[in-house]
């Protein structure tokens, strides 16, 4: 089996854990570093007797973890990563390309992973995504998903797929705006990353309606955070990072990236700096600035807007 021969298909589920049967023509997701990690529970038998030899064990609850990276592609208001965003705690309520966090009614997806002759059909997937923007490189989304247990089956590797996204978006030539207490500025910055940091839990169930002891993968909380690394400047120079840090100023951060046809507009309206660490970047002084994202009212600490440029 060739490790290069891996691909995934992703489709949103109509009801939790029900396989909607994704197809190579409509549900292909361009991804790399695809990894499938079965997560079974092995139960050793603890009883003691006349021998030091272990007794036979048993298998308990089982699930599957899937991780991969996606170089961000666009397709108008509905990017190819749409089913994954919806399964990572986002909602596009008006179906207009504006994705914001949600607190209830979380959606889920089915992920099919092909590995050169075998197929994993993992249902009930939910998880977390981290957005990574680095100057001059494709924007990368790192997904860590979990789903119900399913053993792989022998299935021929697909001969073709339909890629519904454009070329990957590169992080450059667009405005990065930091609006601190002293106004809006465009600091020299190499990278920006952020995530909802969802808390993912496996809901156990001993009932016979669940074959492998896991009722569902559930999102039980989140702790939205991010970081950026601007060039170090004098303390009294705009933007005044140290002043914003000391005052716990809620700073809006925005960035736009596109592929020449479509754009993603990122809005992080209330970022609170957690620390400022001086570092070296090829002989240039920079600050590593982690921040926490807080709400204005609720479910609004971040918004992602996909639209035609």
Walkthrough of the structure:
The chain is mostly beta strands. The protein is built from 2 helices and 21 strands. Helices cover 4% and strands 50% of the residues. The chain has a 19-stranded antiparallel beta sheet that branches. The protein has a two-stranded antiparallel ribbon with strand order 14-15. A hairpin with a 2-residue loop joins β19 (277-281) and β20 (284-293). It is globular. The mean pLDDT is 95.
Features:
single chain, 309 residues, mainly beta, 19-stranded antiparallel beta sheet, two-stranded antiparallel ribbon, 2 helices, globular
Topology (elements, then pairings):
Elements (H helix, E strand, L loop, with lengths): L5 E7 L15 E2 L2 E12 L14 E14 L10 H5 L3 E2 L6 E4 L7 E7 L2 E17 L5 E9 L4 E2 L21 E5 L2 E3 L3 E7 L2 E7 L9 E9 L2 E6 L10 H6 L4 E8 L3 E12 L3 E5 L2 E10 L9 E6 L1
Antiparallel strand pairs: 1-2, 1-7, 3-4, 4-9, 5-6, 6-21, 7-8, 8-9, 8-10, 8-13, 11-12, 11-17, 13-16, 14-15, 16-20, 17-18, 18-20, 18-21, 19-20
């Amino acid at each position: 089996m060739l490790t290069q021969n891996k691909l995934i298909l992703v489709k949103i589920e109509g009801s939790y854990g029900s396989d909607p049967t994704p197809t190579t023509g409509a549900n292909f997701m361009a991804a790399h570093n695809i990894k499938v990690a079965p997560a079974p529970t092995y139960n050793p038998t603890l009883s003691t007797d006349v021998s030091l030899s272990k007794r036979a064990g048993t298998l308990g609850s089982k699930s599957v973890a899937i991780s991969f990276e996606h170089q961000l592609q666009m397709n108008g208001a509905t990017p190819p990563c749409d089913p994954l965003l919806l399964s990572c705690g986002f909602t596009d309520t008006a179906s207009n390309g504006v994705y914001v966090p949600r607190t209830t009614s979380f959606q889920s997806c089915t992920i099919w992973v092909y590995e050169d002759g075998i197929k994993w059909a993992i249902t009930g997937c939910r998880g977390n995504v981290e957005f990574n923007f680095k100057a001059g490189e494709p924007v990368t989304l790192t997904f860590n998903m979990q789903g119900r247990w399913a053993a792989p089956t022998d299935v021929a590797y697909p001969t073709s797929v339909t890629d519904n996204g454009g070329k990957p978006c590169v992080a450059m030539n667009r405005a990065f705006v930091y609006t601190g207490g002293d106004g809006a500025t465009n600091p020299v910055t190499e990278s920006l990353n952020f995530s909802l940091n969802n808390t993912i839990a496996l809901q156990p169930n001993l009932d016979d309606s669940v074959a492998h002891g896991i009722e569902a993968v559930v999102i039980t909380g989140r702790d939205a955070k991010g970081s950026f690394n601007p060039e170090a400047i004098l303390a009294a120079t705009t933007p005044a990072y140290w002043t914003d840090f000391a005052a716990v100023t809620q700073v809006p951060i925005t960035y736009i990236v596109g592929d020449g046809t479509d754009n993603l507009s990122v809005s992080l309206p209330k970022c609170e700096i957690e620390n400022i660490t001086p570092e070296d970047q090829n002989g240039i002084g920079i600050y590593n600035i982690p921040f926490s994202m807080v709400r204005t009212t609720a479910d609004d600490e971040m918004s992602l807007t996909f639209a035609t440029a």
